[in-house]
Amino acid sequence: MSKIRIGLIGCGGMGGGGHASGLTALGDRLEVTAVCDLDPARAQAAAQRLGAAVAVTDYKELLEHVDAVLIALPHDLHSEIGLACLEAGKHVLMEKPLCNTEEECLSLIEKAESKGLVLMTAYPVRFWPIVQEMKRLVEAKTYGEAFHMSIWTEQFTKFPPGHWVGSAAQLGGGQLFSHGCHYIDLMLWFLGRPIKGFHLGTNFGTPWMEREGTSDLAIEFEGGAVGYHFGTWGARGTRLGYSIHIHCTEGMLEYNRAEGKLYLHSNIAAEQANLDTSSKTRVLMEDNLPGKKTQYETEHFLECIRTGQRPSPTDPAVCKDCGSYGGCTKRSSPVKWRI
């Protein structure tokens, strides 16, 4: 089976970090033939690391050398460059968010469908092995019905003055839009169709952000379950770090990313006005692979190219129904989620 030729557009940040590691891990299925970055030195460094023969500063110059592209750029560039790559007949794996507005997202989706090409938003978390196992357990109702899902992401992410991430226009909003979209995706995937929700955000504690650097989000779902996400880029310390809790009627699943473990907490005693919340705990699964583990989502992208299947999670019918286009805002209003 011939390898799929990949072009990396954007070699800094996520492109030169998490995605480069994921691409390297899949060397038996893909070949990075070209890279692009506005910084020639960064493009050359990425080409050397990934074994690419072509390193350019204009993305149009790499298109003839590839079958597909991975775009990891400031968010306000996603629409223009994504459309150009699709128009050139290239499959597109787009680092989230797909675009910054609903109109832009729909335009990319329609272009990909008209060309018969794969367009996928890069959401690595749903492909992590432990998250996949959590999904399997919830769907199978192994520990009863899931009635609440809560996700914490506490980190210190500070950008220097003038960095594009601090700009609401370039980022598309704030922390919720850029990072919380991963966890909105998980809640939609685990709990189903949302019926209402609210978001509170602030840049108090993260003054380098034009919009919110800290968010609280709650969503009610059709079946009665509730999802909650707290995320901050302003944590000066943390206990929860990155963790996912799913309360089911027969136990609670907990993924602690720092420990690389999936826990089951169960057999809690009925509370007797004594504040005793002790329960039995056991480890269901371990995964200590470091980093962002982007190889799993990229593997899915390659499989979609080979088989023609629709990628996860960019089913246009579902996206249009829920207003979730891989992180895009409602119309042209930043940080406003249609849920």
From TrEMBL:
PANTHER family: BCDNA.GH03377. The lineage of its organism: Bacteria, Bacillati, Bacillota, Bacilli, Bacillales. It holds the Pfam family GFO_IDH_MocA. This is Gfo/Idh/MocA family oxidoreductase. The keyword Oxidoreductase applies. Transmembrane segments: none annotated. One of its GO terms (molecular function) is nucleotide binding. Keywords: Oxidoreductase. Residues 131-254 form the GFO/IDH/MocA-like oxidoreductase domain. It comes from Paenibacillus ginsengarvi. Residues 4-122 form the Gfo/Idh/MocA-like oxidoreductase N-terminal domain. The keyword Transcription regulation does not apply.
